[in-house]
Amino acid sequence: MSKILIVGPGAIGSIVTYLLSQSGYHVEIFHYSEERARIINENGIVLKLPNDEETLINPKVITPQDKGDFDAVVYTTKSYQLEDALKLTLKRFRTETYLFLQNGLRHVEIVANYIDEVEKIFFGVTTFGGFRINDNTIQVASIDGETIVSPFKESVPLPETFRVKWIKYHPDYKSILWSKALINAAVNPMTAILEVRNGELARPGHWKIVKNAVKEILKVVQALNIELTISDPEEYVLEVIKKTALNKSSMLQDIESGRRTENDYITGYILEISRRLGIDMPVNEALYNLVKVKEGESR
């Protein structure tokens, strides 16, 4: 039985824990807080599923006081939490296989700065979604979505640990990360600024802004010669908006909860690349700055 450590017991981490446990793996969770670890160890994690059913999972939660060996370590923290998580865990928990499920693009550089001699580093994207109600309860918005993982080093195959029915393999991590980042950069800032659910962005006035944001990002993608997994990005973004009409984006959830957003790791990173390339992105610049204003208001 494979032994897997999840670093980051938020919504995505809890969903991944549930799915891996369902696949027959022994899953443990790392949390930096002794108090949060105690609460979960005593009460488990309640997942409120989209069909209104509830399920209880009881993973062992370990803390910075612990050490151990694992077949794989999966990081599901927010992008801006990743560096601190790596500092806390790399020397304590040994493995040869790492999977990173963060939004945006900047986390690739963070990982490369901390892990330089490990063959099996994978980056992934997922359409799972949800939010934490309290210390041990997660409302799941989507659990039947798609999870795609790609190797950091070219031609590294998918390890046996990740060969489960809900994980797909793609050979190019840049392709999957930029495809997801394009969607997130087009949708999330607008929902956070307007404080609306995804479906509102299909309105003509809102969609015009979203579409222009997509067009700007595509100029950067083309300049970098990145092949997206999306054949028609504008049409696909609109399809995502309609399919997830009732969902609140993670960025909107962060604004509503007074938390830091991943704005710097998604739109902010794309803007940095665009400046190096000499590509103007006025729509995305405006969205980035307006989210910064909203972040200031929410704190």
Name the average pLDDT: 93
Described by strand count, sense and barrel closure, the largest sheet is:
8 strands, mixed
Number of separate strands: 14
Question: Tell me, what is the CATH class of the largest domain?
Answer: Alpha Beta
Strand neighbour order, sheet with most strands: 5-2-1-7-9-10-13-14
- Give the CATH architecture of the largest domain: 3-Layer(aba) Sandwich
Structural class: alpha/beta
Chain oligomer state: single chain
Given the C-alpha coordinates, what overall shape results? Answer: globular
The proportion of strand residues reads 15-25%
How many H/I helices? 10
Helical fraction: 40-55%
The figure for the number of domains is 2
The name of the CATH superfamily of the largest domain reads: NAD(P)-binding Rossmann-like Domain
Radius of gyration: 19 Å
